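Quick one, tokens below:
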């Protein structure tokens, strides 16, 4: 049966999976959500015998129902190949009382590779299925990791161009170097004098501008998105939670049907929402622990039922979580509002105009599976040092936020359910913050000296992604104000 996707802001706007992937964002700023989430039709025990690619097919075939088996398997096998430096694709490592799901073994050493390796294939297949003649322009805002992963995925893909906006002073030095050295005739990277929310708002504004869309169409272009607002990003993320669970079954840690908890360091809410969707599919997850840094807008929301972005934006050492408008939360709000697009649209309008909304008690009651927690900068740093000293395991700053919040959650609740922590980036991506947490004496060294020190301490080979940028020339140096984003896009496209 074909699964229909619907806009969170207009019940009458529907799309097939391939149409939703192509479009990225629904009209009026809405997000595409499936009318229902089908149950897994293969047992967890059988899934435990499958490799990552096979699990991916069993999950994605249920969500992308207008793709043929051949099309979907081509997308999966093209994505999850030698680009990943481990055969498991997403290894599960037992350290410090939890199971760390290492999602950073792809070509840009961040969890965004898990979905952005496949998105170009899903998108180009969708374009063929829908007889698209226009060139597709991928428009993306990034808080650091999505940008590079999207650039790497779409570089020199025929029929596409990609434009990435990032906060000029809001990403790590390594993250910035990865983006501005990106090769590819169809790639364009722009630093904006603002924060991630400014970049994301600017991109969404261009998506919902009908006049701009018809002008683009006239010139032979159409926008699509590589952000997690695109369902083609979100569905592949469901896969690794199913995979992680079935690895625990395979190694005898749990029996099929036993419950686990999941802890996710959260910014735009896509990664944790994918886990929630996996539960809707039948994965036995008891609690979703949503971990925030000092920008704790989500912690406050889960605690009070009020979402309030009217606060200071704090730059932290976990920049991919420095977000005050968590776009994917809208999909969850729509769900707990009883799939009521009108009700959801009213709340989103309130967020846009007043910067705040409050859900009803009835809606809040539907969030009982979620627990919120946050970690300060000092706590995050202390966790990196503590786990290194206790387990000789070095984690990045975002994973350390999650580990800190998990420890607090266990101390407060006594809940010892086996727990998977989403480890979202390699420590090599945030070398300075990681090494200075282990020993302040490292502060005197340069970024690439720290890379070599991290290699010595961890015993983990320096990833190719880091070696590639040691001497790579800067190819993108455009910087603009947030008001100039549209004109920069037009200039790049020569229109």
């Amino acid at each position: 049966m074909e699964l229909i996707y619907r806009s969170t802001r207009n019940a009458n706007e529907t799309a097939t999976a391939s149409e939703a992937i192509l479009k990225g964002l629904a009209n009026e700023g809405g997000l595409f959500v499936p009318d229902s989430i089908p149950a897994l039709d293969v047992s967890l025990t059988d899934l435990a015998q499958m490799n990552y690619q096979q699990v991916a097919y069993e999950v994605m075939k249920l969500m992308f129902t207008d793709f043929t088996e051949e099309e979907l398997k081509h997308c999966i096998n093209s994505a999850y190949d030698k680009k990943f430096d481990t055969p498991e694709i997403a290894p599960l490592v037992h350290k410090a009382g939890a199971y760390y799901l290492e999602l950073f073994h792809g070509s840009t050493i961040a969890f965004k590779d898990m979905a952005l390796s496949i998105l170009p294939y899903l998108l180009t297949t969708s374009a063929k299925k829908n007889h698209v003649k226009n060139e597709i322009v991928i428009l993306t805002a990034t808080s650091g990791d999505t940008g590079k992963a999207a650039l790497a995925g779409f570089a020199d893909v025929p029929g596409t161009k990609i434009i990435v906006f990032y906060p000029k002073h809001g990403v790590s030095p390594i993250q910035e170097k990865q983006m501005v050295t990106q090769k590819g005739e169809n790639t364009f990277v722009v630093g904006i004098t603002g924060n991630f929310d400014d970049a994301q708002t600017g991109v969404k504004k261009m998506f919902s501008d009908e006049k701009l869309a018809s002008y683009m169409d006239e010139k032979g272009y159409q926008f699509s998105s590589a952000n997690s607002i695109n369902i083609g990003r979100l569905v592949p993320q469901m896969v690794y939670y199913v995979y992680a669970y079935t690895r625990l079954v395979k190694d005898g840690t749990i029996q099929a049907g036993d419950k686990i908890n999941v802890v996710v360091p959260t910014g735009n809410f896509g990664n944790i929402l994918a886990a929630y969707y996996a539960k809707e599919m039948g994965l036995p997850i008891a609690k979703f622990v949503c971990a925030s840094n000092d920008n704790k807008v989500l912690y406050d929301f889960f605690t009070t039922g009020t979402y309030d972005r009217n606060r200071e934006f704090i730059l932290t050492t976990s920049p991919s979580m420095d977000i005050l408008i968590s776009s994917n939360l809208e999909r969850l709000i729509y769900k707990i509002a009883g799939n009521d697009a009108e009700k959801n649209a009213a709340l989103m309008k309130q967020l846009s105009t007043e910067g705040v909304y409050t859900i009803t008690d009835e809606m809040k009651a539907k969030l009982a599976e979620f627990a919120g927690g946050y970690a300060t900068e000092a706590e995050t740093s202390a966790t990196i040092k503590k786990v290194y000293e206790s387990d000789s395991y070095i984690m990045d700053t975002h994973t350390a936020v999650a580990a800190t919040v998990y420890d607090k959650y266990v101390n407060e609740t006594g809940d010892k359910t086996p727990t998977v922590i989403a480890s979202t980036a390699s420590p090599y991506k945030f070398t300075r913050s990681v090494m200075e947490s282990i020993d302040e004496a490292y502060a005197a060294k340069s970024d690439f000296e720290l890379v070599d020190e991290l290699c010595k301490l961890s015993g983990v080979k320096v990833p190719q992604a880091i070696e590639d940028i040691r001497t790579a020339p800067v190819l993108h140096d455009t910087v603009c104000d947030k008001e100039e984003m549209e004109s920069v896009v037009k200039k790049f496209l020569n229109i």
